UniProtKB/TrEMBL annotation:
Recorded family membership: Belongs to the enoyl-CoA hydratase/isomerase family.
E.C. no: 4.2.1.17
Protein name as it appears in the record: Enoyl-CoA hydratase
Species per Swiss-Prot/TrEMBL record: Actinomadura rubrisoli
Top-rank lineage group of the source organism: Bacteria
Keywords: Lyase
Source organism phylogeny: Bacteria, Bacillati, Actinomycetota, Actinomycetes, Streptosporangiales
GO molecular function: enoyl-CoA hydratase activity
Top-level enzyme category: lyase
Length: 231
């Protein structure tokens, strides 16, 4: 298995585990990731997920050797993306715990998460553009919404490596830790979220995630409706 899952209390941890490929995702791994996320969604006792990578690396992106060998299905606008889960929104919070490489599809996977905790070893970037591979897992949609269009274009169009400190300053990540401490810090944060009343947390999260696509009066009305349902 190249994706491991375990739950302690209300926190479900999903680990990409292909250290020989720096946790790059091939077709079978993408399938296992989808199954792991679905298991989290279906587990009523799991309130928060932590997504991480084994052996000091989050995810180096899509496995280019596997792609060249035809390991991935041919991508389509309506079909699943290479990372399998990135065109859907998880119903519960997901926190990325990032050490080392977070490139290409791995960066897009981190952007799919609600929060990103990274150590000073982390590096981010869409290096896939250097290989003529445009984004298929949401970077060009989520990154501008997260940090603004100008800074997103800087990262996207240059295909450069972004160090952890700059990622923190630009709002790509939410918490910076010393080397080797991203996962423990993410678990502490996850336990904090899991300790909050689930209905109130879900209402606040849904309102926050939905509001960019709504005009202000509609967003305010939805906020009120969600809050009253959760009360």
């Amino acid at each position: 298995m190249t994706v491991r899952s375990e739950r302690h209390g209300h926190v479900h941890t999903i680990t990409l585990d292909r250290p020989e490929r720096r946790n790059a995702v091939d077709g079978p791994t993408a399938g296992q990731l989808a199954l792991a996320v679905n298991a989290f969604e279906q587990d009523d006792e799991a309130r928060v997920a932590v997504l991480t990578g084994a052996a000091g690396t989050f995810c180096a992106g899509n496995d280019l050797k596997a792609m060249a060998a035809g390991d991935f299905p041919t991508p389509t606008a309506d079909g699943p993306p290479p990372m399998a889960v990135t065109r859907s929104r998880p119903s519960k919070p997901v926190i990325a715990a990032i050490e080392g490489y977070c490139f290409g599809g791995g960066f897009e996977l981190a952007l799919w998460c609600d929060l990103r905790v990274a150590s000073t070893t982390a590096e981010f970037g869409l290096l896939n553009l250097e290989h003529g591979l445009p984004s298929l897992d949401g970077a060009t949609v989520r990154l501008p919404r997260l940090i603004g269009r100008a800074r997103a274009l800087d990262i996207i169009l240059t295909a450069r490596r972004v160090p952890a400190r700059e990622a923190l300053d630009w709002g790509v990540i939410t918490t910076l830790t010393p080397p080797g401490e991203a996962l423990a810090t993410a678990h502490t944060l996850a336990n904090r979220l899991a300790s909050l009343p689930p209905a109130a947390l879900a209402a606040a999260r849904t309102s926050t995630l939905d509001q960019p696509s709504l005009d202000e009066p509609t967003a305010l009305k939805q906020e009120a409706a969600l809050a009253l349902q959760a009360h």
